[in-house]
Amino acid sequence: MKRPSKLKRRIRKFTFISIIIFLFFTIVGSSNINYYQPIQHTVIRNNIKTPSAIPFIPDQQLDDQQRFLDTITHQIPNTPQPNTYEYILLRAYGTVFINQNPEIKLPSKVILNNEKETLNFQDNLQLTLVEGTQECYLQKVAADAFNQARNIIDIPLKSGYSGDCTRSYATNLRFWRKYTNNQTLERVKQGRETTILGVVAPPGTSQHLWGLALDLSVSNSAQREALKQNGWFQTVENDVPHWTYLGWDEESLRKFGLQEKTVRGITYWLTPI
Ligand SMILES: [Zn+2]
Fold first, then answer.
1. 171, 115 in Cβ contact below 8 A?
2. Ligand 1 mean position to 163 CA, how many Å?
3. How far is CA 217 from CA 36, 149, 150, 178, 229, in A?
4. Phi, psi (5° rounding) for residue 17?
5. Most exposed: 1, 19, 170, 211, by fewest CB within 10 Å?
6. Distance from the alpha carbon of residue 84 to the mean position of ligand 1, in angstroms
7. What SS3 class is residue 154?
8. Which residues pair with 214 in a beta bridge?
9. What are the pLDDT digits (tens) for 161-213?
């Protein structure tokens, strides 16, 4: 067998080394690319639901209750089940969940369990000071809508303090304790006490925690009209000063199953459950 010439051996050696060098840089280079690529952060935010850009409209052939519940199923991961405390709260305060503006953040459940969970939720809100107030904060979309209503006609806050607007868990709890005794919560959970829900919300359940509610001092129909035109409605039966930002015109509320009910001259939009 003929031995390869010295030149051929050199060429082979050179080729071999070239391949090794090429492989080395290819591997190191690609691993560098991987290493320096920004990590795709998947932020899982507790207790937050951000509506998508395309609104969910339930099947209009369904009855009110099913349209509402289908909307809730679309909006929060664990729809409260009948005969639970959560369902009682959904009935009392759940109108908020028809909001579908992508800039509005909704809680992913009807109860925020403590101050920490509340702060965790509120930290992710775009809270904005309402024009002409010292301490009234709302989610920006709701604040803008309220400012618009007040461009039409003056609408005073109920007390003028921050508690009229976005509240802390501690304030929710303080208000609750002011109007209740140590058996009230248990009675609410058992479904034996419902009237209190129109006076004060149990700890961690107020729409005021979510930056989408206002307590107002409304005294005429022009003020009511301005609020309704801008997506604000009375949604908690017998809580006269309390207004909720729903973000839809009045015509649209029925699409989600909400029902109109007039009590002592006040028209409320209530959940159908
Ligand atoms: Zn209120």
1. no
2. 8
3. 57, 14, 13, 21, 17
4. -65, -40
5. 1
6. 23
7. coil
8. 243
9. 999 999 999 999 999 999 999 999 999 999 999 999 999 999 999 999 999 99
